[in-house]
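Q: Hi! First time doing this. I have a protein sequence and I read that you can turn it into a structure. Is that right? Here it is:
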Amino acid sequence: MADESFDNQWYVIHTYSGYENSVKTNLESRIETMGMTDYIFRVVVPEREVTVNENGETKVVKENDFPGYVLVEMVMTDEAWYVVRNTPGVTGFLGSHGGGSKPTSLLPEEVDEMLARVEDTERDVVDHIDAEVGDVVNVTSGSFEGMEGTITSIDNDKQEVTVLVNFLGRETPTEISFADVKPVN
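A: Yes, that's right. Below is the predicted 3D structure, encoded as structure tokens:
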């Protein structure tokens, strides 16, 4: 048997954007049916409920700040790695260098920050933004708080901007609520 770490740690898996919840459901089912409950503990889609003003109506919607990513707490054994990466909709692990190499786990402070973001469920309603595509904004709340990024698109219906930020060493487009960004002067 290969040298394996038997500590549970958090990893980020890539999925097709928009399929995060189906990947979570598929993986949770596979954990049970393949007897992996001692190795794979939690699967979390980093989303939360937010209040938005849409067409003059206030609604509570689920918002995913990390499209295409799902968090999984697991012990990185060969078997657990196989179950996760062969789950329908999973395209790979973040931090895996290919060629069968095991991925790098998240740092504890990264996990704490992401899980706190998921648990933070209320936010002020902001229905406009004083910025344009190409403008640089500062992220004022959430997992990317304190980071700057460039707006690549604006969705007034969802009250969101897509911002290109540096996430775990990679430029990643992420949707952020108008309430969580401030234009940089």
